[in-house]
Specification:
mainly beta, 1 helix, 36% strand, globular
Length: 141
């Protein structure tokens, strides 16, 4: 289950998630979720830092109403980070809203998703929001 940051709870209702510039960043397994982290600058010490890495744009963002669970599910296409060389153990990812033309320390954090700890090894690293993990994050009524 994804965790929504307090800042994310505030701005999710203020932005159009399907047209906003949402990016996914990978975090090392040293990161421990803190609901009070607000911006990228709060977590950059734990961001993946192999030389080929860059936060990646999320595409085909959709919102689905789920009346049975009283949730709105936000999802997107699979995100692929090409050939991340060895050097990091990835433990989670974070969705953030990019405000300007490139990622900035002040960009707000929306949600955090725990991943299976995986060492970067030169292979493509994928984050898939389908199957058993249908939504990037859920907003509860």
């Amino acid at each position: 289950m994804p965790n929504v940051y307090n800042r994310g709870k505030k701005i999710i209702g203020e932005i159009n998630l399907t047209s906003a510039t949402l990016k996914l960043m990978l975090l090392k397994d040293t990161y421990s979720f803190d609901v009070d982290d607000n911006t990228r600058s709060d977590i950059t010490a734990d961001e993946c830092d192999v030389s080929s890495y860059a936060a990646t744009l999320m595409t085909t963002v959709t919102i689905t109403q789920n009346d049975t669970s009283n949730e709105a599910e936000v999802s997107a296409d699979r995100v692929a980070f090409s050939a991340l060389e060895a050097g990091n153990d990835i433990g989670s990812c974070v969705v953030f809203q990019q405000i300007g033309g490139s990622p900035a320390p002040t960009d707000p954090l929306l949600c955090h998703c725990q991943l299976v700890d995986t060492a970067t090894n030169g292979q493509v690293f994928r984050v898939d929001f389908s199957g058993n993990n249908p939504g990037i994050f859920l907003t509860h009524a």
